[in-house]
Amino acid sequence: MTGLSIKPMSPAKAWLILIGLLLILSYAIYWPLNEFRQQQLQSEANLERLVSKKRNIIADSKQISSNVAAIKKEISRSKLIEMSSSSLATNQFQSTVRKISARHLISLTQMQILKPKERGGLSQLFIAIEGYSSLTQFYRFLIELENHKPLIRVTDANIIPIGNKKGFEKLNFNFTLSTLSGATQ
């Protein structure tokens, strides 16, 4: 055993072995780590896209909320009859007609609720009224109905002059009033 001689390795062979070991280590360690890093970067980019989409959804939601608030404000300003039930809307409509007639000293002798008609998402409410008044009071009453919001429409009108008292023409009238009522959410 003592007869074995150990020869030193040549520098070129040592460098080749070292380079080979480094290549094996790079394939075993660096490339898998680099691939894992690329996957993490891709996951981070996907996460950033999702966060961006959620931020856009939140911004759109805030815009929609402000638009809904503006629409509700416009509805309340336009004095639309909101219908939570048909009877509530009809009562509100009757009350409006009574107030307008009282302002113009119209004597209502009869008010009858007629069956509402569905018009898409809205209902058309009907009230038949009868009464009497002077010509000028009746004229002012009709003008206010014409300019009222929501619009009150007069149909099936019968107007009959019934006399002249102290220079005032008296009228007897009957007609149907209608308006649209909608359910706001």
Instruction: Kindly name the structural category.
Output: alpha+beta
Task: Give the H and E element order.
Answer: HHEEHEE
Beta-strand fraction estimate: 25-35%
Global morphology: rod-shaped
Low-confidence stretches: none
Question: What is the number of strand segments?
Answer: 4
CATH class of the largest domain, please? Answer: Alpha Beta
Describe this structure in words.
The protein is α+β, with helices and mostly antiparallel strands and 185 residues long. It folds into 2 domains: 12-78; 86-182, Ribosomal protein S6/Translation elongation factor EF1B (Alpha-Beta Plaits), CATH 3.30.70.60. Helices cover 54% and strands 29% of the residues. The chain contains 3 helices and 4 strands; from the N terminus they run H-H-E-E-H-E-E. It has helices at 11-78, 86-103, 135-147, and strands spanning 107-119, 122-134, 153-165, 168-182. The protein has a 4-stranded antiparallel β-sheet with strand order 1-2-4-3. A hairpin with a 2-residue loop joins strand 1 and strand 2 (122-134). The mean pLDDT is 82.
Please name the defining characteristics of this protein:
185 residues; 2 domains; Alpha-Beta Plaits; 4 strands; 54% helix
